[in-house]
Amino acid sequence: MTCRNASHAGSWYTENGNELSRQLDLWLSKADLTHGPARAIIAPHAGYSYCGACAAYAYRQVSPVVVKRIFILGPSHHVRLGGCALSSLDKYQTPLYDLTIDKQIYAELEATRQFEWMDVQTDEDEHSIEMHLPYIAKVMEEYKTGFTIIPILVGSLTPEKEAKYGAILAPYLADPQNLLVISSDFCHWGSRFRYTWRDSSRGHIYQSIEWLDKQGMDIIEKMDPRAFTDYLNKYGNTICGRHPIGVLLQAIAKLRSQPNAPKMSLQFLKYAQSSQCMNHQDSSVSYASASLVFE
């Protein structure tokens, strides 16, 4: 069995399993179950000292007794990718316990001929999927032998490709035993991110950033993929998981277009910033957690 190393443990989060378990328990205990059971969540992928508390609000909505398969859609930060890629490994290591990749679902996805394979270097360099694994291991720990994961690395997709992958994943979203985890931070603001959009009428820079993020979050809650694309084109907001979010919105749109479509509700539950930007020398990253439920 080949296993992906927890390459960011010891830097982005603690490699000590007991300490990690305590941290995750604490953050989850401070979040309320208000919008569950989640069929999909959006949650950040930064270092846990920055976003661990925010991510808990998404993971608190997960019902581990129901979930059997967890799809993790993370954006590619290091390699150019025009489509989506699957892992060539069998397991993903975490400081809590190892997570097993679902080879049956991988075979079904491969059969669509729309997926490529990432090499081990790409897999281990990328943090956008790994940062969700400890939270998944924690919320599923009482059922650790009863679920599998389906990691999917998402490239720089056109809106047409987002729709194509959304259509592929829609039947999986329709199954209540599946959970989709959408990995995304929100605005990366500052000269080091080459993004310094500001609306002075909104107050301080950090208030302008929050206004900008919340415009996008409102559109995501409306589950309108075209409006989300228009928003990104208008403001250029540096939402690094915009393509995984786009795929989710397209999967939802596909389900909603079908007869007897289920009612769905997508809600953001928490918003945070790594720091409050006051001047142009400052920089920050925003984090937001959301949950999709079928009513």
Automatic annotation (TrEMBL):
HAMAP family: MEMO1. Gene3D superfamilies: LigB-like (3.40.830.10). It comes from the Eukaryota. It holds the Pfam family Memo. InterPro entries: MEMO1_fam. It comes from Parnassius mnemosyne (clouded apollo). Belongs to the MEMO1 family. This is Protein MEMO1.
